[in-house]
Write a structure and sequence with these properties.
This protein is mainly alpha-helical. The protein contains four helices and three strands; from the N terminus they run H-E-H-H-E-E-H.
């Protein structure tokens, strides 16, 4: 069972950042130019007795292959996740395509298939992950920003 902290973190992520990321990706894909790619970080750090789970920001150190970060250090799976995500970013910067030898085939995002690479112990591509949560938030208007 998830702690209240992790439940709140998931709700805030779904309602805010994830919702905005899907909107941005759909608009980018609709332009018909360069491909859009979306990922979801589901790997739960074992650091601090697992207290933080897979909350927003834990993927930053993995992006830079900073395996000394407390969230990744001392963990074989943390090193593996850093290998995957850092290689993905390097490939994307180099070619505009995130596909590389460390992840399965990653198809571009479009609003029909909604392909998302899920980074976890078993990294995989899913179509429209967390669709029931997404449908819930899509049925409700976003909260107004600081300017109303």
């Amino acid at each position: 069972m998830a702690s209240p902290f992790l439940i709140q973190a998931q709700a805030l992520t779904d309602a805010g950042g994830r919702r905005a990321a899907f909107t941005l990706a759909a608009r980018k894909a609709a332009q018909g130019g360069a491909s859009a790619y979306v990922y979801q970080w589901d790997w739960r750090t074992p650091a601090y007795d697992g207290k933080f789970g897979a909350v927003h920001g834990i993927d930053v150190s993995a992006s830079f292959h900073n395996v000394r970060d407390a969230f990744l250090a001392g963990s074989t799976s943390g090193k593996r996740m850093a290998d995957r995500l850092a290689s993905t970013w390097a490939a994307f910067v180099r070619t505009g395509d995130p596909n590389n030898a460390h992840v399965p085939l990653w198809k571009p995002y479009d609003d029909g298939g909604r392909a998302v690479m899920v980074f976890n112990v078993e990294t995989r591509q899913e179509l429209n992950p967390r669709s029931e949560i997404r449908a819930f938030w899509d049925a409700h208007p976003p909260a107004p920003g600081p300017r109303g």
